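Fold it.
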Amino acid sequence: MRIVNVGEITRYIKERLETDPFLSRVWVRGEVSSCVYHPSGHLYFEIKDETARLKVVMFRSQAARLRVRLDNGTIVVVRGHLGVYERSGTYQLYAQAVESEGLGMLHEALERLKKRLQQEGLFDTARKRVLPTTPAVIGVVTSRVGAAVRDIQTVLRKRWPMARVVLAPVSVQGETAPYEIAEAIRRLNEADGVDVIIVGRGGGAPEELWAFNTELVARAVFESRVPVVSAVGHEKDVTVSDLVADVRAATPSAAAEIVVPDQRAVRKQVEALKANLGRAVARHLDLRRVRFEALVRHPALAQPVGWICGRRWENADRLETALKNALMRRVAADETRLAALAGRLQALSPLEILARGFSVCRRADGQILRNAADVSLGEKVSVRLNTGGFLCVVEERYLGNQNSETRIQNSEAEEPT
């Protein structure tokens, strides 16, 4: 058995409590008692019900943001995390926010609404649209009275006075506010020419901003065809409409600065572009001037007749030379080809055959004899040799079967000449 000291067991309990996910962010409802505002700015009190009580500590940074003063007997909802104060060995709730019971219930409902809308994709950044750079018509959904509309109009007149503002006045708090805001967004979508819509109001207590945390307003912003900028309350206030809108602005004045460019910056940009264009035109003209002067000095313009005639003679000489070379190449090629053909013809010539000791025999009608059977005994045959020839009478034939026929001469036989 291991024995531990008080510090060890206290630290063990502290570690177990402070690492529990449920106790790291918990909402606790109870009645305020023993409430003490310490000179340091810290706030110490207890919350209790019929069965138990819980010590609560709210440090100065969080206590300074409380919108109401806590009094004993008030029913509140406290948000915070559970921990252990080791010196006294007590557990306590370290508060981050304190709200009235009714507002606490609204916050619970708000968290459920946020979770559901997020699951449906209303908060997805991928669907958010880019605002137009120079809107001509700007729709504004806010109260007709109050600082918000004045701030928006003042900033728009200063930055981009050429834009036209279409105000859709609504109640920004109260029971009818969500319906009025949603309907105003739809009306501006149906109007012609509206490029962007600002939806918002000035700062206030959380319950005063609640119209912009309703599902009705959130879906109207989501379904808007025109890009929407949400500007509700101050920078620290984040509503459901801020999460759904295409762009969230910290304040109404900031929204006006987001939707339009600054005319002074645009004017400077235009002046810079104008200067760049002037320099580009000047450079272009300088280049053209240099080219023009070079063309003026060119012989074709300075002495056009001489330049043209000279160019023509040069072209004529070049063409004559090219023609001569082409003809010479053609003649040489033809001579080579002719020599080759002559050689082939010479090889096939009958005279070449006769020169090798062969002869050509013809009958009296000029028919060349190729077969001994084609000539009769006693028939006159002319024989052509390589040089000259003679006429003879067939006295004997040698046939293909090696048989021979011999002519029987008589006294009347004709002598060959």
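The longest strand covers residues 26-37.
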